[in-house]
Amino acid sequence: MIGVFFFFVGVLTLAGIYAILAMILNLEAGWAGMWDLGIAGLLAVGGYTFIIVTQTQSDDVVFAPGLPMWMGIILGSLAGGVAALIIGVPSLRVRGEYFLITTLAFAEVIRQLAVNLNSITRGTVGFNQFDRPFEALAEGRGYRVLLLVLVWVVAGIVYILMRRLVHAPYGRVLRAFRDNDPVALSLGKHTNRHRIQTFVLAGLLYGAAAPLYLWFLRIATPSIFSSEVTFVAWTALVIGGIASKSGPIVGSIILLLVTESVALLQGSAEFAVVLASTRFIVLGLVLILVMRFRPAGLVTEQQSLAAASNRVQVRSS
Amino acid sequence: MQNIIFGLITGSILATATVGFSMIRQTEGFINIAHGQFLTLGAFLGFFFVSTAGLNVFLGGLIAAALVGVAGVVVSRIVFRPIADSGPLAQLFTSIGLAFLLFGLIRVAFGASVKFFPTSFGTRFDIGSVNVTVGEILIVAVAGVSVAALALFLTKTRLGTWIRATASNPSLAEVRGVPVERVSVAVWFVASAFAGLAGVMIGLISNVNSEMGFQQILIILAAAVLGGLGSIYGVLAAGLLLGLAMDLSALIIPTAYRSVVAFGVLILVLLVRPQGLFSTATRKEAG
Amino acid sequence: MTAILEVTDVTKRFGGVVAVSGASLSVPEGAVVAVIGPNGAGKTSLFNVVSGFETPDGGTVTFRGSQVHRLQPWQIARLGLVRSFQTPVGFPALSVWENLMVAGSAREAEPVLAALSGRWRDREADADRRANELLEQLNLHDARDLRLADLTPGDIKLVDFARQLMMQPRMMLLDEPASGVDPASIGRLSGLIADVRAQGITVLVIDHNIGFVLGIADHVHVMALGEVIADGKPADVIQDPAVVEIYLGKRA
Predict the structure, then answer these.
(1) Mutation site for B-interface testing, chosen from A93, A280, A289 by largest number of B Cβ within 10 Å
(2) pLDDT of C106-124, one tens digit each?
(3) What residues make up the domain containing A204?
(4) Complex ipTM, two decimals?
């Protein structure tokens, strides 16, 4: 029973991490209409920056300054923002599916760089020795509960942030040019500047969230930043309801519970391969079914945003 | 130079893989990420026929490709037909779901281990300063013949003309009496069969493994985008170009960066000439 | 009266097709001017050039004394020249109120930091007040929180109109405002334009509906095949033989 308990602690922690990723993706894709398939790349930039600057062992790596954790988080976040700027400025010159393909290509380039720049990233071996926050407070498996709480506290903060953004004029303009770019332009909005700002903000946030992912997995290798991460985050967002506020959270919890619970079935070694594959089968089926029967997701934009009770009261003069 | 030969081999296989992807993009209107899984399926089926059933590699490959073609039609009717009106993004995400589903199913059916075709490539010989095997030449030849046959089919037959009409203007084609359903079935069969064929070829050149699909789909995307909208020749040229770029770059950059080169070319072209290298149409900004 | 908008010798080509050919017109401040002509005459292309959505291949456009033909659409809108679109789709997923509020903000880019800190509330108060007033005037107050996509096409057009007014424009470009409007509501539309003119806003209208145009315009320009072929007072223009010819179809 204890095993099952800690199993679900793990699943819910991962769900929390994906909830954060999905909320950030919701900002760029759901509200600003930028169909980004390269989030694994931005996550990788932030994650690797964090790991590299906080490493103290310097035997086989060129660069290991051993900075404190909080600095690592900030630098990781900044790296994500800079990467987003570098990727965004050229990519945003194309729209729709071509933007999608370009971001996917960039993410793959980043992953290949992580694999090949052995002297900086340790290639496919990666890093597996790093500190985690508040480790002194809980020992062994107890730490997993602490991490669960930490992740969901961060998710809560991100949720509040997103709620503020979407109800402000900023959020409104994003949703406007998402719906109709020419009209937004005709109303005097510099729509491309908004897109770049949003993309960079997303990069900063992905970079800041990356350490959570690493603390959960306890390793940092190129393979954990594959496009699978991108697709799972997208699936979570789509199920939960794109362009709503709570959709990303709802979708992540449901998706992760469904796909990971399959692992509860114990079996022989041959069965293990089948089990590992089942996750993908379930993930694929869920995505296909949702797109077929409820493409708007569980929580729609209308339910979440357009209700009168949500119209933030402005102070009258 | 040796690398040019490698580039030609890579390029012709890539062209074979991409030509079908491009057809689906043009006639059905969306990006099919699951195309890579059809490639994988072809590779595994081909391997099964050759190593387990003992068939000759040509026959085995052909049957595998045909089976994948049929699978493509079946899948398209079950999965994509019901959402045909849902817009390209819904269809794209469905194809991502399908890709995951097929990936998992293929792994369950064929296992996760890497497999090698027991086929020999024949004698090695030199042409000038270049060293090739009979097998490699045959692969390029098969790719070339297949694409040429496809081009003939598209230009000389009625069904082919219908397909081209639908590719250039789906709504107009329907209004003008083109049998949309038949075109769709034909396109899915051909596209998937070509993917399966490419899978067999990749399996022969390197190996057969379950990750092939996701590995190849990115390069296929690059070649399709590079080729631009329009004729088969664009895709062919783009495939060869990327293949050559990837293998020639090995002369100056470590071979590990092969795919980075491909994406680098893609990104550069998209930014400088968003309509692709060989398209005459201006790329429509979708959303 | 000074000209608020001067279009001088504008040419615009798309591939081999000449959409606008050496078109010139001048709009006096405070007037209501119409541009009429058959389909394909180049009217919408001219609008696109004037509002910055297309760059002319030749000629200049001057608004309030500054050259605008090389500016971005959002920059021209900031100067006070606001346009409508032929199919007024607006922002379908946003509510009617939100649609208006997007236009209400004076900034060209909303700052992210202000969004996070919530310091925008005071600045929005004025826009909120204006939005509510407009909704009252147009009898749309009950629809305030409905999704724009859920409204009737007629009401969507009204919201489109109101959205333009939220920009507090100096000049409005109206692209086929009467299309799809039932005859009974045309009068209301004319009334709205008259109200707008009374506030000192200059109006440039494209439309097919000759009756509607005659009712509101001070001055009419006629376009055919990309050129301005006639202009003058409405009553005079419709009797101009060249104009009659195009409308009867003798010239394509």
Answers:
(1) A280
(2) 776 777 777 777 777 777 8
(3) 2-224
(4) 0.87
